[in-house]
Structures are given as C-alpha cells and as structure tokens.
Amino acid sequence: MPIVNLVPQEERQRELRRQIYIFPIAGAVLLVAAMGGSYLYFNSELSNKQSELDSKKQLNAQLSKDVAEITKYDELKNQKQNRQNAVTNLYSQRFRWSRTLDDISFVMPSDSWLISIKGNVPGAVTSSTSKPAAGAADTTQNLILEGYTYEMDTIATMMVRLGLIPSLKDVVLIKAEKEDMGGRLVIHFSVGANLNQAASNANPAVAPVAGEQGPSDVTPTTGTTTSPTTGRTTTGSTTGTTGTTGGIN
Question: What ranges do the domains of the chain cover?
C-alpha cells in the first residue's frame, strides 16, 4: 500500500530548520557545561594546592625557627671547641715550676745555697725588664741558678744531680769564681739548664709531705747527704730567689 505524507511542504521545511538549530544549540550547551565542570574541577584543585602551599609555608617557617635555634648551638659548639683548643695549647706549653723547684731543693747539697733562680718557659713571652744572670749574657739556657758554695766538688755533685731531674736537661756550668765572704773563701757559681716541658707535664707536682708522693725519682749521687728540706739556707748564710716572666717570680 503506498505511503502518503500528508504534512504540508512548508511544515516539513520548518521542522528541518528546527532540527538544524537544535543541534548547534545542544552542542553549545554541552560545551558550556563541560567548560563549567572543568572550571569547577580545576578551581577545586587550585584551592587544594593553595591550601597545601600555605601549609608548607607554615611548616617551612617553623623549620626555619628550628634551624635558627640549631645554628645557635652550632655557634656555641664552635666557641667551645675554640676555647678548648686554646686551653689545650696553653696546657701543652705550660711548665710545672713548683715541681721543678721542689726537685732542685731536694738535690741541692747542704753546703751550698742559692741567691737567685731565673728562668723562662721556651716560647713564652718574656718581660722586657728581665735581666740575665751574672755571667750568662751569652747563654741560651732557660734556667739559671746562681749561688755560693765552698768546694768545686760540691758544684760537680750538684750538676750531676740536676741532670737527673726529669724536667731539666743540658745542665752546664756558666761560671765558678772564688770570692771572699766575711774572711772566708767561697765559690760564686752560676749553673744553666734547659727546661723539659714534656717531662714536667708528665710528672704532676705533689708536695713532699707526709702521706703524699715525694719529688721526682731522683737518686742523689755519692757525696753530700741531702734531704727534701736541705739546699736552701745553711747556718750563717743568706739565700734568696728572683725570677723572670715564665713562671718564677
């Protein structure tokens, strides 16, 4: 049976035109919707990233404060290390005068006495007003002992004993001259020695009193008997000590 389209030709053309307009409009609506959805999505992502950035900035600010605090401790550590190095350097250069003087008094013969002890630690700054011991202008010894005795044998014995003291080395006789003192002939002597700082620091200074360690292990040679209290003033004689910068005053 044949199909007959009863819709007028004009109506069919209008329907076709409506369809032609509907598709672009629908496409435009879909495009706007897609763009709006994309905008909302990326705006939400941007907000999240901004919040995350703000959080990171706050964390970074807090960490910066922590780093600043740690830096202060690093500076304190460096200051402490520098001071410790300075103390260690000073300690390595120091000399235990009390120990050495104690040893000297221990080995001095009883028939001799000192009128001057002058010394300076190697490397230490010496006073511009320091004067060398008599007859010691050409010597390079760090320690000069000046005193009196009655016999040359006593000087020899004293020098041997001084050489046994761990903190002294290179003991030499600078001068030995006979002088008249109160109608009696005496020998005015000067003995020089160099200081051994390593040995001085290795042997702590301990006063030779009851119950404590005595002077350094020094065995006097045969000759005049000595004791920890001898070697200073004998009956009828005068003693005294002077010193230079470096530890003896």
Answer: 8-93, 95-249
User: Please, is 80 exposed, middle or buried when counting C-beta atoms within 10 Å of its C-beta (0-12, 13-18, 19+)?
Assistant: exposed
In tens digits, the chain (249 residues) has pLDDT values of 666 566 566 766 777 777 777 777 888 888 888 888 888 888 888 888 888 888 888 888 888 888 888 888 888 888 898 888 888 777 766 778 888 899 999 999 999 999 999 988 776 654 444 454 444 444 578 899 999 999 999 999 999 999 999 889 999 999 999 999 888 899 999 999 998 877 666 644 444 443 334 455 544 444 443 343 334 333 333 334 444 334 443
